[in-house]
Design goal:
Length: 319
């Protein structure tokens, strides 16, 4: 036993602590497992007010012809106001035949008050490890032949059920796959042509009568931008990046635009004066410029659009 606990534990651990190691059997067959119950009891009435900690034996994996299989958690069931009970089950085995002794196991108790400690050992006990008894007086029996087991369909009922379930799932999936309708292809709406975009924007500008708001510069900027975007997209001329003079020069090779060159020049020139020279055109000039822009777009619209409009006019003559 190691040193006596200092105050407040003035007693030896053996005076207030009892331990024991009890095996569930005293003899096993080789390789058979057995259990050892480790039991530690502390009489708390003998050390009132002292906080203590019990440390159970730390067993190696192999010792004295025994092998450690496992250790349970420490159980404190059974404790009461006067006695603290600690229990643990240790599982051992042995693969060496003979009579082997389980050596003493050390328990330690620590005082949380001042750090002092003491230890107590269990009593050793012996375990007989026996081999399998063989009666050598009897003759050896021959090896028995293999026995045929009768086939029963009930032994395979789970396999049948799993196969039928899988088959049903496959049939259902195939049925749903065939029932699923292929979505019809919906062609995207045709993109708005430069002509349609220009006419829509000019009509909107005409309905808003933006010149009545007093911001003449904004009105002419919108009007010329509509014309320049239309010319750029319809005839591949970088109209947005060119000055009025450059644009009028570059439309000369395009006959259908060149025919409207004077009208376009009048709109662009008047717009430049209104935007940059702060010219205030007459009220009637605002609407006249818009109407002229509509005429230019109508005149220069693509041939397919023009022929379609002409055909609609023929099919629906005025009354």
């Amino acid at each position: 036993m190691m040193g006596v606990l200092a105050s407040p534990l003035t007693l030896s651990a053996q005076d207030y602590m009892s331990i024991k190691a009890v095996p569930d059997t005293m003899a096993i067959r080789i390789g058979e497992q057995f259990k050892v119950m480790l039991d530690a009891r502390v009489q708390t009435y003998a050390i009132p007010g002292v906080h203590f900690k019990i440390v159970f034996p730390s067993l190696p994996d192999s010792f004295n012809h025994f092998e450690l299989i496992g250790q349970s958690e420490i159980d404190t069931t059974g404790s009461n106001n006067v006695e603290k009970v600690f229990r643990q089950t240790v599982t051992l085995t042995s693969f060496d035949s003979g009579r082997w002794e389980v050596p003493p196991m050390k328990f330690e108790v620590f005082s949380a008050t001042d750090g002092s400690y003491d230890s107590v050992f269990t009593k050793p006990f012996a375990i007989d490890v026996n081999t399998v008894a063989v009666d050598t007086s009897k003759a050896f029996k021959p090896i028995k032949p293999l026995r045929t087991v009768k086939w029963l369909w009930t032994d395979y009922i789970l396999y049948f059920a799993a196969g039928l379930t899988l088959l049903a799932v496959i049939i259902i999936l195939i049925w749903f796959a065939r029932q699923k309708k292929v979505p019809k292809y919906v062609a995207p709406p045709p993109a708005e042509t430069p002509y349609d975009a220009a006419m829509r924007q000019l009509r909107q500008l005409q309905n808003e009568k933006a010149w009545n708001n007093g911001d003449i510069k904004t009105y002419y900027t919108q009007l010329t931008d509509i014309l320049r975007v239309y010319i750029e997209k319809q005839f591949r001329i970088p109209a947005l990046e060119q000055t009025t003079a450059e644009l009028l020069q570059n439309i000369k090779p395009i006959t259908i635009l060149n025919q409207q060159r004077d009208k376009l020049s009048g709109i662009l020139t008047l717009a430049d004066l209104a935007k940059f020279a702060k010219l205030q055109p007459a009220p009637q000039e605002h609407e006249q410029c818009l109407q002229t822009a509509i005429e230019i777009v109508e005149w220069s619209k693509p041939r397919a659009v023009a022929e379609e409009a002409k055909q609609e006019g023929t099919e629906n003559p005025k009354a």
